[in-house]
Amino acid sequence: MKNSNVTKVGYVVGAISVGSFLVCSVWGVFLPSVALKELHFLLLQLVYPGFAFTAIGYAVGILEAFVYGWIIGASFVWLHKKICTHN
What is the pTM of this model? Predict the structure, then answer.
């Protein structure tokens, strides 16, 4: 982990976050109950403000998912390097 690149890990976690977003948004379509679909949609809107089932809203959700993932991945590597330094 000492040689981890903040940017590369950020991109990888961002890509994984986008994949998770896509799976979650498609999964909501196949929920059996209308109440569950509505709850799922509201949770997606809570996590990704600006998300809607429109082309622009979907693009906003994908962009937010990538940015959140990148920040989390890069922060993890940066924090690990700061805390776990071996002399």
Answer: 0.83
